[in-house]
């Protein structure tokens, strides 16, 4: 048998398997869509995968520019994806994240958390010192309404609930805080400079406003306003700054094979912390809407709420809140 | 076949690599525009229906003073639909959206499998950067400049957008003519494809293509003039086993 005849015979025998390919493709599509638990079906998919791989290898040689090859490439890719995708159990994935992965991420990020907290604290002190020394600079950090209100001897937060209902206020605040927190993380893409900018700016604003209200004798009122929600809100700001800093450092000093790979690993790993940050910001948004502007809450109650919520945050980040299992010692 | 698009090649346990053609800026933009229209329609639809229910008459204007019911039932859900559309739909459809389906693309992990929930969320969080300064400027530039057409969200999540090839079909009668020995595999496909697309072609194009195919594959002689039906019959005869 000469080469051409042999090739023709091989092609004929291949094309006779077209029905098997169609069946394999249909099965892969069906299993990719559904949540089937039929073991026999899954076994048949593995057989299909081998069949498609075998036939595709031949078609790539015998019929490289054909629609048959196009079909087999697509069917093989589909079978590969269906066979290799893991189980999709959102509930258990979230529980594992909160119990096991989050504490590990926090441990990994601890140097970044320390640094971002230090940067934030320095910015607060800087903003405070700046406005304490040059009060007119408050115009750089605060809105004219806020300045006018403080100059009248009144905090801008007084009577807030007469204008906006607590629920609306909470949702507006938590949405804004979550966006800022996510920005602090994503801005790490600019080699960490974006994160530094967001941390620094927020710190300067906080310090400046504190200095300004102190100059007008309103510091105690402002502290009373922020103590319930601020403990967690400011901590979350530092946490998301730490996540952004890790992303930035991965780009500046890549630890993995390449810069992009290093960025991917850092972003995916530190991004887990953002999930916890978003959850915590929902809680502090609620406190800021319902507790902080409400004059019926005494100072001791606000402090108790603020500290308790901060302890809840620590419990969440260390995995205790969701019953983290004790690590077994290695034999 | 058209010129090969840049692709992702994934090693497989079978030893035969999986080849996935990567989607470019055009397919991405098409998918995004379809999804954008869907989420705008859904969000606006919710807003209008909610406002009509809230007001109890044919009027969608908001109340003069801020009201928790208006905000909770009308504004917040509409904004949630608009801003969390991609997060929710990609999670529910495992890396696809209606727009991506229409564009024939889907998100895959770098191993060719479905991306994890964490990867999908990370990919969407980075839309904040990709959408800067406006109209996805940063994302578009990185898609054009990177080899695998990646936006920053894809780089962060380790995902890419590939063509699904959902429409790739086997030419139905391809095997028959080939088995009969009159056509090679490519010829059988060309004849099958021409017959499939017959009704969609212009009459002159039908005759011209049929004439070329029959001349090339040495069909039995005989001129059919401009009689389309005759040309089609001759093609069908060529494709049928004897």
Distance between the termini of chain A: 65 Å
What is the number of domains of chain A? Answer: 2
The sequence of SSEs of chain A as H and E is HHHHHHHHHHHH
Distance between the termini of chain B: 29 Å
What's the count of strands of chain B? Answer: 4
Q: Biggest sheet of chain A: strands, sense, closure?
A: none
Question: Average pLDDT value of chain A?
Answer: 87
Strand order of the largest sheet of chain B: 1-2
The chain-level structural class of chain B is mainly alpha
Low-confidence stretches of chain A: none
Q: Which structural class matches the secondary elements of chain A?
A: mainly alpha
Q: Count of helices of chain B?
A: 11
Helix content of chain B: 55-70%
* Number of beta strands of chain A: 0
The rough form of chain B would be described as elongated
Overview of the structural elements:
The complex is a heterodimer of chains A (about 325) and B (about 240). Chain A is mainly α and about 325 residues long. Chain A is built from 12 helices and no strands. The radius of gyration of chain A is 29 Å and the shape is elongated. The model of chain A has no long low-confidence stretch (mean pLDDT about 85). Chain B has about 240 residues and is mainly α. Chain B folds into 2 domains: about 160 residues, no CATH class; about 70 residues, no CATH class. Chain B has a two-stranded antiparallel ribbon. In chain B, a hairpin with a 7-residue loop joins strand 1 and strand 2. In chain B, helix 2 packs across helix 4, helix 8 packs across helix 9 and helix 9 packs antiparallel against helix 11. Chain B is elongated and about 85 Å long. The mean pLDDT of chain B is about 85. Classes of the chains: A mainly alpha (about 325), B mainly alpha (about 240).
List the helices and strands and how they pair.
The complex is a heterodimer of chains A (331) and B (242).
Chain A: H1 3-15, H2 18-33, H3 39-62, H4 67-84, H5 90-133, H6 144-151, H7 160-163, H8 166-186, H9 193-215, H10 219-252, H11 259-290, H12 299-317
Helix pairs in contact in A: 1-3, 2-3, 2-4, 3-4, 5-9, 5-10, 5-11, 8-9, 8-10, 8-11, 9-10, 10-11, 10-12, 11-12
Chain B: E1 7-10, E2 18-21, H1 25-55, H2 68-92, H3 98-103, E3 105-109, H4 117-125, H5 127-130, H6 137-145, H7 152-157, E4 159-163, H8 174-180, H9 185-196, H10 203-216, H11 228-239
Antiparallel strand pairs in B: 1-2, 3-4
Helix pairs in contact in B: 1-2, 2-4, 8-9, 9-10, 9-11, 10-11
